[in-house]
Amino acid sequence: DKVAVDDTNVNSGNNQNWGFIAITPGETITWNGSKGTSFATADNWDRGRPPVDTDVIVIPADAAEMPVLMDVFAANRLTVATGATLGLNGFSLTVTNGLDCAGTLVCSGAETLTLAGDVTIKHFTAADSTVVLTGGANRTVDFAGQTLRNLEIAGTAGQTTFADGFAADFITCLRTDAASTLVFAADQTVTVGQIKLKGALTDVLPGMTLASSEPGAKWKLNVTGKADVAGVIAVDSDASAGKRVAAFNPSEDGLNNVNWLFGVTQSTWQGPAAGGNWSDAANWADGKVPDKDTRV
Asked: Fewer beta carbons below 10 Å: N end or C end of the chain?
């Protein structure tokens, strides 16, 4: 395949199969698939070069073939039209300014999709992949009821709004150094095998708020496995479809929640002392004997 380089590079002569091309950041490049499925083949694109990380990439449904990644790739923005498909082929993908996939993303292994900006994925083959939502700005995410393997909600402070329900085997959001807000679609269900949420609820930081897109209307949470939750303020959450969610201190009941238990403490056994007596505080790491609100 031709090597395409931008105008920061110099053609000093005697080069074969190189394309020295002026590329403007933010250019739109459109897939045509005229030479097969390779994402890296120059002639498969309307600009006669493969995409670079500053491009706005469009994959239409009427292309001759659908693209497949041949290596890890980073894009500025990516649009996959209704009826179109992008195969990741075991390679990770980064999109820095928004993904709009009305078509299908197909993972085949443990790929990582690192996505900043607004995200829409209407059709998704997850395999063993991980979706990482990153970036510091507020964003809207629409998984359209799809099932994910691993979802990590990362980035700095900001609000993530989920426009629809979805399912995931694992959901992780660790924000212990900044305030954050997760907004879930009212009357829609998030089903998760294991969920880990750690917020920064202190005298200085307001923690991680879990809220509904319509205040007063419940969003639904179905935890089928383990919940490890602390530092959150939950509001309008109906978790009655799954296991009870125990929110460790510090955590707050923001009201209108169902099947949550707030103010839970955790104690670790460190005995033996005094003959290994359960009721002896010296046997517990925090110096307190567990009670009904303690997880051991």
From this structure: C
